[in-house]
Amino acid sequence: MRFKGLMLAACVAALGAGAHADGHGGKIKVGMITTLSGGGAGLGIDVRDGFMLAVKGNDHVELVVEDDQRKPDIAVQLADKLIQKKKVDVMTGIIWSNLAMAVVPAATAQGKFYLSPNAGPSALAGRGCSPNYFNVSWQNDAFSEAAGAYLSAEGVGKVFLMAPNYPAGQDMMAGFKRFFEGEVTNEVYTKLGQTDYAAEIAQIRASDADQVYFFLPGGMGISFMKQYAGSGVDKPVAGPAFSFAQGILGALGEAALGVKNTAH
Fold first, then answer.
1. Which end of the chain has fewer CB atoms surrounding its CB within 10 Å, N or C?
2. How far apart are CA 53 and CA 80, in angstroms?
3. What residues contact 56, with CB distance under 8 A and at least 6 apart?
4. Whole-angstrom Cα distance, residue 54 to residue 130?
5. Tens digit of pLDDT for each residue in 252-263?
6. pLDDT at residue 1 in the model
7. Contacts of 217 (CB under 8 A, 6+ apart)
């Protein structure tokens, strides 16, 4: 209900700002670009289904849904189509921060409202925030700021950091370091979508870190944790919400026992 209220409030704001609802038969036209296929599709499907549930029976909202396939170039093409051809008033749906950075600044610069249901890159917050941009989820750093503070309070002295090399991964590690009072022995950035972590696990084994902290959403986290559980390395692990989301926990089973997870 909270999300529904936020969405409708933004739609009302769009009307007040002179959006093109009159050209849509009095309706607000919402363009949703999200990930519905490939890696990370589970989150996109949830966002789509949740949004459709929120507007079910609402004759004032017209929704156009597109699949970005987790590819920035596809997302940009879809955004151009929704803005230039479909004449949407409001945009939403993006899951991945690199896609958000490719789409959101151009969309808001063209006067479109953007509601972010997931991605919260730091570059779109603070000084870089547009008055047309509303993040109804979170700012990426926050999850890992909590983890850094928690592990410091628990007396962890040295930590091994790992995340994919894209905006959300960089934000997560920056947030962790902002509140962690110990020593970062290694800070490793992996390829987005990577599934083989043998080299990184060897680095963890060789390090003198007391703790592993990683952000690997979706299938990346499943691959890493399964390989890590079978490696014999016994350093404890922690991660933000997406490293241990419900789909990941279901796939890991007992391999997830003992992990530390920070989330809302």
1. N
2. 26
3. none
4. 25
5. 998 888 999 998
6. 43
7. 40, 43, 168, 242, 243, 245
Q: 58: which 2 tokens?
A: 């609402």
Mean per-residue pLDDT, 29-34: 98
Q: How many residues does the chain have?
A: 264
Q: Which two tokens stand for residue 138?
A: 């979170």
Place of tokens 């490939």: 38
CA separation for the pair 1, 50 (Å, rounded): 10
Query: Exposed/middle/buried for 60, CB within 10 Å: 0-12, 13-18, 19+?
Result: middle
**In the block, which residue shows the tokens 């309706």?**
27
Please state the pTM of the whole predicted model: 0.81
pLDDT at position 40 over 80? no
Structural tokens at position 211? 């703790």
Q: How far apart are CA 120 and CA 174, in angstroms?
A: 14
